[in-house]
Amino acid sequence: MANISLKSMLEASIDPKLVARSKKTGKLVYFKTPQAKDAAMKAGSHEEPKKDKKAQAKQSAQSANMFKGDYTKDRELPTNDFSDVKGPKPGDIVVPNKGEHKGQKHKVIHVFDDGSMNIQPVGLKAKDIKYRQGAVKAKPEDIELPK
């Protein structure tokens, strides 16, 4: 006995002109007569079927892309302008006057709003750095500019 799918039998006997999409559920509705379809369309409960659901899903997914657009234009990016900062800036070389590596050159990694900064020794191997995590926070009075 041959396998006959019910869907293929239904689709074969339905006139595509008698199909409409329900506005309430979004499902396709098959009408028996053109008059019944026209009455539903005039009542506003149904509309002409558009593209298939897959094409509609692709369209809605493309238009709802949250990564679309220029995000950087919508927000203000922090500037690396340190012209108003007194003292060392990130990248400058300083010498701490206390601590485990006092007297050695350090590179400023970050400057905080209160003037303190993170510094990291320059010219040492990682295993020779005695600071935990490789850097330390220093107050402005604890550093000097190199000579």
SSE inventory with pairings:
Elements: H1 6-13, E1 19-22, E2 28-30, H2 34-43, E3 46-47, H3 53-63, H4 71-74, E4 93-96, E5 106-111, E6 117-121, E7 136-138, E8 143-144
Antiparallel strand pairs: 1-2, 1-3, 4-5, 4-8, 5-6, 6-7
User: How confident is the prediction overall: mean pLDDT?
Assistant: 78
Main sheet: which strands, in order across?
7-6-5-4-8
Largest sheet: 5 strands, antiparallel
The low-confidence runs, each spanning 5 or more residues with pLDDT under 50, are none
List keywords for this structure.
147 residues; alpha+beta; three-stranded antiparallel sheet; rod-shaped; single chain
Description:
The chain has 147 residues and is of the alpha+beta class. The chain is 22% helix and 20% strand. It has helices at 6-13, 34-43, 53-63, 71-74, and strands at residues 19-22, 28-30, 46-47, 93-96, 106-111, 117-121, 136-138, 143-144. The strands form 2 sheets. A 5-stranded antiparallel β-sheet has the order 7-6-5-4-8, with no helix packed on it. Strands 2-1-3 form a 3-stranded antiparallel β-sheet, with helices on one face. The longest helix has 11 residues, at 53-63. It starts with 5 loop residues before the first helix and ends with a strand.
Short summary of the structure?
The chain is α+β, with helices and mostly antiparallel strands. It has four helices and eight strands; from the N terminus they run αββαβααβββββ.
